[in-house]
Amino acid sequence: MATSAFTHYFRSSIGRKQLVAITGLALCGFLVGHLTGNFLLMVSSDAFNIYAHKLISLGALLYVIEAGLATVFLVHLGLAMKLNMENMQSKGKYQQKTKTGRGTTFASQTMPYTGVVLLVFLILHLISLKFGTHYETTVDGVVMRDLYRTTLEYFRSPIATAWYVIAMATAALHTSHGFASAFQTMGWNHGKYFKNVKRLGLIYAIVVGAGFAGLSIWCHLK
Q1: How many of the other CB atoms lie within 10 Å of CB of 193?
Q2: Crossing angle, helix 194-221 and helix 13-38, to 10 degrees?
Q3: Does pLDDT of 138 surpass 50?
Q4: CA torsion through residues 203, 112, 74, 181, sign
Q5: Are 16 and 87 in contact (CB under 8 A)?
Q6: Angstrom distance (rounded) from CA 39 to CA 55
Q7: What pLDDT, in 10s, does the model give residues 45-59?
Q8: Distance of alpha carbon 142 from alpha carbon 32, whole angstroms
């Protein structure tokens, strides 16, 4: 009975929207952690390589974490695309709202397109860096992958750097709407506090987008 109610909930429109919201917030949290680790690039090559080596040293646990992240991303993307298609096909209130433009912003209207750009970016990012050229270095007697060198070589290209900056601007646009929208979908939009949630979402988008973009430019100039 409980399983049936759970299945019915996540097959419903509100259930799927809330799952998109939860997975979106989870991905926002991941980006903060990822950006924090990447700032070690500016500390030293050894600091960044030790950080990367510690992650790799997690072994099977790392694969579990990566599988979890991939699942969260695919669920978020798949359900978001499905909901968008249903909205496009629906008639009446949604179309009327879209026509008048009430309650919509450029960020909200472009969510499907920015999502596709980020999907393409993620695939290329993994190919170029995670699965990119493998170098080795020795730090304190420990042989490890020189991901610092791989990263700087990648951003040596002005085209790669420009693409990365564009992708991060797209990520900022996407999350500037998605962050606050997730809270609203979950019902955490009390009138007294929701304006602050919107501000926090905008600050988050700017800091994360500018942080990643700034690091790519730093690597290029380095």
Answers
A1: 12
A2: 40
A3: yes
A4: positive
A5: no
A6: 15
A7: 999 999 999 999 999
A8: 28
CA atoms of 162 and 16, how far apart (whole Å): 35
C-alpha distances out from residue 51 to 37, 57, 67, Å: 7, 10, 20
Q: Average pLDDT for residues 142-149, to the nearest whole number?
A: 97
For residue 56, what are its two tokens?
Answer: 């790799």
Rounded mean pLDDT, 156-179: 97
Q: Running DSSP on this structure, what letter comes out for residue 157? A: S
> Largest Cα–Cα distance of the chain, in whole Å?
67
- In three-state secondary structure terms, 28 is helix
Over residues 94-131, the pLDDT tens digits come to 444 444 444 578 988 999 999 999 999 999 999 999 99
Q: Give how far Cα 13 sits from Cα of 18, 139, 182, Å.
A: 9, 52, 14
| Per-residue model confidence (pLDDT) at position 6 | 66
The DSSP annotation for 80-132 comes to: HHHHHHHHHH--SHHHHHHHHTTT--HHHHTHHHHHHHHHHHHHHHIIIIITS
Handedness of CA 177, 182, 183, 185 (dihedral sign): positive
| Neighbouring C-alpha atoms within 13 Å toward the C-beta of 24 | 28
Rounded CA-CA distance 180/191 in Å is: 13
Pull the structure tokens for residue 210.
């500018």
Task: Provide the whole-model pTM.
Answer: 0.87
Q: Which helix (H) or strand (E) holds 67?
A: helix 60-89
